[in-house]
Design brief:
The chain is an alpha/beta fold. About 35% of the residues lie in helices and about 15% in strands. The strands form 3 sheets. Strands 7, 8, 9, 10, 11, 12, 13, 14 and 15 form a 9-stranded mixed beta sheet that branches.
């Protein structure tokens, strides 16, 4: 896989000269080329005239430096590592001059979307026109439409569904959760919790459609589908549709491909990347940026953003969370820690085995192939990311599904297939979680027993096996039962 840390041009004198010639052409001053602009007569809407999305084969550090200079916005990466001898492939939003610059140094570039504004126009017309659809999941939905849908699920099944407020965004929008659980009480203590969130990144519309599909299937399947009934009898599932509601609204009203939140920065720019603002391994330039205008700007401090504070505080107040899914798009990945370093995370065996199980569940459901692996090695470095905080700081198993594309505007026909495969992955994950695997090796043995005893005797929060918020003999009894049963 290519190394995004590399920052030196190639030493090949011919290619190096060509690279610097193009650099002079575009002006390597830190100013991005081909920024979107407001339309004449419609200053409230940002346009992407003359821009496209391309897939570039990265051969070396020089290519990486150039493409990051001439293209303002990296979109995603494919599961294809690229031809032999190359570092990999990247998808970028770019204009014609940037494309010419890449081709001038011999880079292999494929145009995926030749006219980005046309895609935006078609999407806007379709959504504004209220085209006839057969169901709620046939097209994308606004913030208010999702909220109404959640309230409808609660009204239909109040005995298993409820809504709670986690906090407020920077612009004072509600960050809320849909909590799903059955009336069947746990054997002891509280039920373990699976936490799922979407829309950390504003433009990733398909993520909220997928999490809402999960909610819909769980609510309507309880008492009807034996698998759903068993899962909700065992777990509470908490779904946060919008971590970044301000950014999401902005993508609907003003700038379709906006990524960050709407924080006014000191230099007149806007936005912090919520998925670089978590308080674990925060502050590294390897996987985040201190540049206000960067798409991966991490903020002024860990948890500087109210959206991250809301998620953090809710998690700390709910000690029963055992697994977490931070849903993103696009690229078809199932990623796990670490994001901030190439070193393997302790207990990576359980993360890997459960990711591989979800991958197979997606395939078995008729879905597409997802690439499961460590975030840093499989996709790119992420410092201050959600999965590292949940796993490294809170000892919660955490993954990032990167859903289907193509691009951040996949056609409506992609919504249901993507949602169905993620729902299959969720059910498999719930059915195969093993609480007695204390050391996260992927199997239960005497080492797990010894590890639990050490935590229990020290009174550590991680020994709260029955999820009541404190450690007592009931935790010991619950662990022993699970250990004997091998789960």
């Amino acid at each position: 896989m290519f190394d995004l840390r590399a920052n030196e041009p190639t030493r090949n004198p011919v290619r190096r000269s060509a690279w610097f010639a193009v650099g002079a052409l575009v002006g390597l001053t830190g100013a991005a080329i081909a920024q979107p602009h407001a339309a004449e007569g419609d200053p409230g809407r940002v346009r992407y005239d003359g821009q496209m999305v391309v897939r570039a084969v990265i051969r070396d550090a020089a290519d990486l430096m150039l493409v990051n200079q001439v293209a303002p916005d990296c979109w995603s990466h494919t599961a294809d590592p690229g031809p032999p001898g190359t570092w990999g492939v990247l998808d970028y939003r770019i204009d014609a001059s940037g494309l010419e610059a890449l081709r001038a140094v011999g880079m292999q570039v494929e145009v995926l979307i030749p006219d980005l504004q046309r895609v935006v126009d078609e999407e806007s017309r379709r959504l504004a026109g209220g085209a006839m659809t057969r169901g709620w999941f046939d097209d994308y939905k606004s913030l208010d439409q999702v909220s109404q849908f959640v309230d409808g699920l609660i009204a239909a099944r109040p005995e298993i569904a409820s809504r709670e407020t986690l906090g407020l965004s920077l612009e004072q929008r509600e960050i809320y959760a849909l909590r799903l659980t059955s009336p069947v009480p746990p054997d002891r203590g509280g039920k373990p919790v699976i936490l799922i969130n979407s829309v950390q990144h504003a433009r990733e519309w398909i993520t909220v459609m997928s999490t809402m599909y999960m909610a819909d299937q769980l609510v309507n399947g309880y008492g009807v589908d034996p698998r759903v009934t068993a899962v909700l009898d065992k777990f509470e599932i908490v779904i946060v549709p919008f971590v970044n509601p301000d950014g999401y609204v902005y993508t609907w009203t003003t700038e379709r491909y906006w990524r960050k939140n709407r924080r006014p920065n000191a230099n007149g720019t806007f936005g912090v990347d919520n998925n670089r603002n978590w308080g674990f391994a925060w502050g590294s330039n390897n996987g985040s940026s201190g540049n206000f205008g960067s798409e991966t700007y991490r903020g002024t401090a860990p948890f500087s953003e109210p959206e991250n504070v809301a998620m953090r505080d809710w998690t700390l107040a709910n000690p029963g969370v055992v697994m977490h899914l931070d849903v993103h798009s696009y690229g078809q990945y199932l990623l796990y820690s670490w994001g901030y370093t190439p070193a393997p995370a302790p207990g990576v065996g359980a993360l890997r085995s459960l990711a591989m199980g979800m991958r197979q569940a997606i395939l078995d459901s008729g879905g597409v192939t997802y690439n499961a692996g460590q975030c840093y090695q499989t996709l790119y470095p992420v410092s201050g990311g959600a999965i590292d905080w949940y796993y490294g700081d809170q000892n919660i198993l955490s993954w990032t599904p990167e859903l289907r594309g193509p691009s951040f505007s996949p056609p409506p026909s992609v919504i249901l297939p993507t949602a169905r495969e993620m729902y299959a992955a969720l059910l498999w994950l719930a059915e195969n979680y093993c609480g007695a695997d204390v050391d996260y090796t992927g199997f239960v043995d005497s080492v797990d027993f010894d590890a639990f005893m050490a935590m229990f005797e020290a009174g550590l929060p991680s020994a709260d096996f029955d999820h009541t918020g404190f450690v007592d003999t009931d935790d010991f009894d619950a662990f022993v039962q699970a250990f004997i049963e091998g789960c």
